[in-house]
């Protein structure tokens, strides 16, 4: 019985990491990309997202609750999984380890980012171009955001590979090899978008 529970918990964890959390990540990166067009373009894009109807309900049920489940269960997996990359230096074993490491880094970064933006907004701060430019004016915070964004993107991209295996989409070695290349391309493309947005605020 506990084995069945574990199976469904892991499947739900995998699903929520892609839908809706992964979709929100891509949407967030796209909005941030407007910073490359200037402060006005970014402020308009951010303002549009803030003006969505039922925004708080969407944030709670589509973003925060799935994210909390994915994060909490992900920490459980990270600290109970048996990493064997130290014994077997295979590429996929190292991806397994990096998935766990970037999961923890992602949790730290996202928690801090939410504190600096969404929580600050609830206390009266305005989430706009100037806010992010001020945050990233610190070299320490700039480095933190670069590492954090790359960790989030890697965790999502490599997680897509695991998602495809978990849900029976890629079952053969060939399909899994193709999936590795596809997820690598996704990582590189989203990293370009994410880093371009960060440096647009600097």
TrEMBL record:
Gene Ontology MF, one: metal ion binding
UniProt xrefs under CDD domains: SQR_TypeB_1_TM
Keywords in alphabetical order: Heme, Iron, Membrane, Metal-binding, Transmembrane, Transmembrane helix
Protein's UniProt name: Succinate dehydrogenase
Signal peptide segment: none
Pfam families for this protein: Sdh_cyt (PF01127)
Main location group: membrane
